[in-house]
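Need tokens for this chain, all 249 residues.
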Amino acid sequence: MVAATDSGLNVEKPLTEVERVVDTFVAPSKTFTDIKHNASWWVPFLVIAAFWCGLAFVADAKIGLDTEVNNELQLTPKQADRLEKLSPEDRSAQLNARVKGTRVFWRYLAPIFALVMAAVTAGLMLGTFNFGFGARLRFNQCMANYMYSSLPLIIKVSIAILVFFLGAGEGFTFGNPVASNLGALVPIDLHFVHFLASAVDVFTIWSLILAGIGYSCLTGIKRSTCLTVIFVWWAVITVAISGVTALFA
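Here are the structure tokens for all 249 residues:
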């Protein structure tokens, strides 16, 4: 959008929040360039939080979070074995506690956890680009880049909700709400490889590409360089998390 100034020069008109959300999907460079001038990130955060909390309520209503907890336990046989060794009363109490904890976390606490993770990631990218590449990013710009580049998650969540309303979703877990990754191709007993494959997700890759585009727009650094930085950090973090998760599986 272009507006004429009194001097007759054409300048870019700031985008509205709705335009920035829409352009993230259809013209991402517009959104991320606009972050230079307006680093607000609350709107995409609230949109994503609303979708995830909505998914928690739908999952609870359609299949019950006890089913979700049992599905998670199938991915962590060590924990399942420990539960099996308990008395029926203690096992039931443990499972009920897990269900209640899952309900509270995904309905109410997940947005706070996501905000903390966003802040950590934004700080990591701030340091990487400012100290490693001489950029002049501000923390709020990195937060905005993270939030807008995460918007593809609402499509993933929408698909999961649709699946529930179609009468399916018995194998649902919050960690893998939609079969959009390579995890299904790797046996669960190969824990590290399975968790690693599950991280190679269509929507995650989409978000990573958007993040690379965003940092290129914000810093002026070549897009290929920014994408490399994003994917290298993602690979390092994914391997580390997969390794820790496999230890406790």
